[in-house]
Amino acid sequence: MGDYIELSEKLNCPADGVFEFYSRQCYLFPTIMPTVFKEVKRIKPEGSERNWTFVNAASCGSWMDTVGPIDTENKSIKWTLLAGDVPLKSYKSLSVVHHFSISEGGCVAKVVLTFEKKHDHGPVPIDYMKVLCDMLRAVEEYVQNDTH
Question: Which value, to the nearest 10 degrees, does the dihedral of the CA atoms of residues 124, 62, 6, 1 take?
Fold first, then answer.
């Protein structure tokens, strides 16, 4: 199973809006985080596999993940890394579970990053967790400003 790090963040927007973005609109990350993501696209039109291209290709590269399971009732979604030269230098596996729960004035986002190091002395993926936190804040702003 591996080790994990987690965080909980209070967001000032509805859990439904954040969950909707994470489960159906990840292709918008390059629009809301243009200095981090160059492109996010599905590998197959109806599939759950996606390719993420980072702006800083030298340090991040390109990643492929799969989405699922998605639990609409509990507003939870899991992403699992399938490929990526940069992360797979240090980790055998990486996965992220996002859970969004209703809270007064918005929601609480819980993020659990589970990882298995390739080597015992390998790094804990703190920088990846920072990016995941930045993603939450970008989605919070997007949902707050979304007018459709």
Answer: -70
Label residue 115 exposed, middle or buried (CB < 10 Å: 0-12, 13-18, 19+). Answer: buried
CA-nearest of 9, 38, 29, 25 to 109 is 9
**Mean per-residue pLDDT for 96-119?**
96
Q: Which domain holds residue 70?
A: 3-123+139-145
Identify the CA nearest to 19 among candidates 129, 115, 124, 111: 111
C-alpha pair distances (Å), 83 with each of 21, 53, 94, 135, 148: 23, 12, 10, 20, 35
Quick check: 32 pLDDT over 80? yes
Count up the domains in the chain and report the number.
Answer: 1
User: Is the pTM above the cut of 0.85?
Assistant: yes
Beta strands in 12-137 (DSSP E): 37-42, 49-54, 62-71, 76-83, 91-103, 106-117
